[in-house]
Amino acid sequence: MNDNAHDSNAVPDEPVPPSLQGDIERILFPRRRIAARIRALAGRIGGDFGDRPMMLAAIMTGSLIFVADLIRHLPLRMRIHLFGLSSYAGAATESDGARMLGQRGAEFAGKHVLIIDDILDSGRTLAATVEACRLAGAESIRTCVLLRKPPARRKPGGLDQVDYVGFDVPDVWVVGYGLDYGDYYRNLPDIAVLKKKC
Ligand code: IMP
Ligand code: MG
Q1: Which residue CA neighbors atom 16 of ligand 1 most closely?
Q2: 117: closest CA among 88, 153, 146?
Q3: How many domains are there within the chain?
Q4: In a domain, 1, yes or no
Q5: ∠ CA 10-13-15 to the nearest 5 degrees?
Q6: 135 within a domain of the structure (yes/no)
Q7: Residue 17: inside a domain
Q8: I need a surface site. Which of 29, 53, 154, 164 has the fewest CB within 10 A?
Q9: What is the atom index within ligand 1 of the atom nearest the CA of 127?
Q10: Confidence (pTM)
Q11: Distance of CA 133 to the CA centre of its chain
């Protein structure tokens, strides 16, 4: 019997779905490594927030799976707000600046906000989101990303300092675990580098 047979946290290693295999150059972070890192991140976040109720602001759609996994390791009193935000038009790989697609304000006033995104690239998406939360009267604002591209990717006006980071990644296009290319590949359970031809 395998060591993990009785471990409810064990994540089985399933192969990349055959329909996606041809597009993937290599797996950067397999699902087990992601799961372990998320548990560690949640431990740090939980310790920092203590008993302060949290307003978790998740930037959709890329942070969908990250947030879903992270919050189940955060035994805090929290509310969740989903930001619909897009900094890339279609499948373009350059940010043209974050555009806030929809925002409401009242629920942020006086709250301790944790903003969550999938990846820090130019930093403009997070900068815009932090600003929106600040204008809405948040009491404190922290930021968390699963992935962070190298500092050379940051653009003027972009946020550079993030409070919680899952992994640093090279300057490549990554997909899976919520991250997309042209809105595909989000359902890949691992984080992978896309083949250049795609
Ligand atoms: P930023 O505003 O340039 O920092 O871009 C952040 C957003 O760009 C993220 O929320 C992602 O949706 C997207 N993004 C940047 N790099 C990648 C990538 O390598 N794969 C998938 N999405 C990415
Ligand atoms: Mg995104």
Answers
A1: 121
A2: 146
A3: 1
A4: no
A5: 160
A6: yes
A7: no
A8: 53
A9: 2
A10: 0.86
A11: 17
